[in-house]
Amino acid sequence: xxxxxxxxxxxxxxxxxxxxxxxxxxxxxxxxxxxxxxxxxxxxxxxxxxxxxxxxxxxxxxxxxxxxxxxxxxxxxxxxxxxxxxxxxxxxxxxxxxxxxxxxxxxxxxxxxxxxxxxxxxxxxxxxxxxxxxxxxxxxxxxxxxxxxxxxxxxxxxxxxxxxxxxxxxxxxxxxxxxxxxxxxxxxxxxxxxxxxxxxxxxxxxxxxxxxxxxxxxxxxxxxxxxxxxxxxxxxxxxxxxxxxxxxxxxxxxxxxxxxxxxxxxxxxxxxxxxxxxxxxxxxxxxxxxxxxxxxxxxxxxxxxxxxxxxxxxxxxxxxxxxxxxxxxxxxxxxxxxxxxxxxxxxxxx
Length: 350
Description:
The protein has helices spanning 14-22, 34-46, 58-69, 83-86, 91-96, 113-118, 151-163, 175-182, 186-190, 216-228, 237-249, 254-269, 297-306, 329-349; strands spanning 2-3, 51-55, 75-79, 99-103, 132-138, 168-171, 195-199, 210-214, 274-275, 285-290, 309-310, 312-313, 319-322.
């Protein structure tokens, strides 16, 4: 199977497997796992924050951040196309008593400052309104095709947030893809946010885990929330070792994924019946539409799956494909050929 549903399907490298088998271990709930402690120090440094906490998942990392930043009864301003709003099971409302205020997401993944301003209460002293406690942004933006946010926009957002007394949390699940694509170090990207989550288990290829980073007091509070959510771990150094390898050896190679994504998009653009904008592909996510007569999304996905290619439906009539370390140029060429065959056969069957 040519697996293009997500970069979460990456398998750990041989170096990761070796590191996991040799990891020095302790009880992380007591703060005594040396491998976890080392990873957290490395992770904090890599994104320019004073402290970091290893979380089992990006969902828990984002949820912990929201619960620390926003008091019960408050609200978070979040994109209506964001992972936090769409794909994290409403956790902030269920667990934190936090209201989501969905803000229109623009095609480049940004939230317009005017739209954010419109979500602020006209009178903060009026007890009828839920008070905003946080602004969330996503970088790169998954539903907008893996688009990295510009430094100029992030600086504007930071100034807006400061002016209104609000912290900023960045869901940076793929922030290192943003760094590689833009040439801006992850620490400079993260400097515009008070807290940041990033995944070790996507393009970086670790088997499990995400990092939440921020100020030291914020991270201490987040550890308490992690425990409350059931995320306290014991000998977590087993997978922290893989995370350390991920940060030290797999970041730069994300550029290979971006090149494969561009190659796949260029190939799709040659197929009559596929609508894709190769110029919009800047990292490892490709969004496209099937326009060939006789093919709806479900039929298309079943047809390519039968031929050995896995992709996913992504809303708004789009298909998503994601490149990662488990693919090479031959896989991408074969994927293009499979799509072309499915479209051709659909046309011939009419």
